[in-house]
Amino acid sequence: MDGLKLLRRRFNPISALAVLAVLLLAPRAGLARVILISIDGLRPDAIDLADTPNLDSLIATGSYSALAQCELPPATLPNHTTMLTGVSVETHGVWFNTQVEGKVGVRTLHDEIADAGMRTGFFASKGKLGYIAHEESIETFELRGTIVELTDLVVEQIANDPLDFIFFHSRQPDSTGHQFGWLSDEYLAAIELADEQVGRILDAIDDAGLDDVNVLVTGDHGGEGMTHIFNVPAVRLIPWIANGPDIAVGRTLCSEIHQRDMAATVLALFDLPIPESYEGEPIVEAFKDTPQTQCDPVAPILGPPCLILLIPAVGFMGLWFAWGKWRRSHAVPELYKPAAE
Questions:
Q1: Would you list the domain boundaries of the chain?
Q2: Is 6 exposed, middle or buried (0-12, 13-18, 19+ CB in 10 A)?
Q3: What pLDDT is stored for residue 303 in this prediction?
Q4: Nearest-10 crossing angle of helices 53-60, 185-207
Q5: What end-to-end distance do the CA atoms of the chain give, in Å?
Q6: Are strands 63-69 and 237-243 parallel, antiparallel or unpaired?
Q7: Tens digits of per-residue pLDDT, 152-202?
Q8: In whole angstroms, what is the distance from residue 316 CA to residue 9 CA?
Q9: How many beta carbons lie within 10 A of that of residue 320, not counting itself?
């Protein structure tokens, strides 16, 4: 009886909860976290034209390529599906770029990470990306239209309950590119807005005292004029940025990088096995323990545009923009927000 009383006196539930909180929130020895940021419609050359101090800092202190390639077709949903599954459009079958019911029929990066016992988040600013979110593998799932509001949620998540893996999608500057044109003043301003959100996420990581976070930043496609349907460098080339404790500093990458390489790279940073079904490879040249490859980076040869598909593609885009203009003209004013936020 005296021993039981002694145990009761020594057990303090408040102290136990405090210890548990420290164990859950403290950086984990030997394990890294990853935040993957996709900036929709971001051209690599536009980073040089816009005022982007946060992206510039990640590039200067990390590893970078301005010559990564997106998938064909160069559209949002097909490329994000490849980004998060590690397989080509031909394999996952997502050729369409509209919001549909159901879920993609192949395993995603979130599935692989969750099956390894880690916690994941999915924060996207276009509803159609919900098609590639298997919610049973995602602890925090958010679809919001404005990137500022979405960033608020990511910052709150990092501050209060850091996850092992976060995917964050910014709809800008793509939305503004369609409205005003790629490389327009408005498009560059939208890039600067996206860069501010990147900075807020980086500040949240610092404020939380997390020194184990690898940050990856890329895009899904570029653009030219007011669209991104052609197989040309302005559309196909995307930035590829890596920064963090496991990443080489100040390195311009020589590797040929494809959209399908991102998922394998994330798994490699977690030291998880890469599924045999993956068609991409981890970009290990970006890792700090890998020697620098010596080369003179040159733009990849993309091949000629498919002229057979050009005429129907232009016709389809004309109908698409006409429908979008009609939809906006008939929208309820208080529910419609301009693309430039």
A1: 28-303
A2: exposed
A3: 61
A4: 60
A5: 68
A6: antiparallel
A7: 999 999 999 999 999 999 999 999 999 999 999 999 999 999 999 999 999
A8: 75
A9: 15
Which residues, 6 or more positions from 161, have their beta carbon under 8 angstroms from its beta carbon?
A: 25
Run of H or E residues at 120:
strand 120-124
Note the helical H segments in the chain.
2-10, 13-25, 44-49, 53-60, 76-85, 89-92, 109-115, 147-160, 174-180, 185-207, 233-236, 261-269, 307-329
Ordered DSSP codes for 16-60: HHHHHHHHHHSPPTT--EEEEEEETT--HHHHHHS--HHHHHHHH
CATH code reported for the domain at 28-303: 3.40.720.10
Q: Which helix (H) or strand (E) holds 64?
A: strand 63-69
Question: Which residue positions in the chain have pLDDT lower than 70?
Answer: 1-30, 297-341
Which of 186, 150, 196 minimizes the C-alpha distance to 171?
150
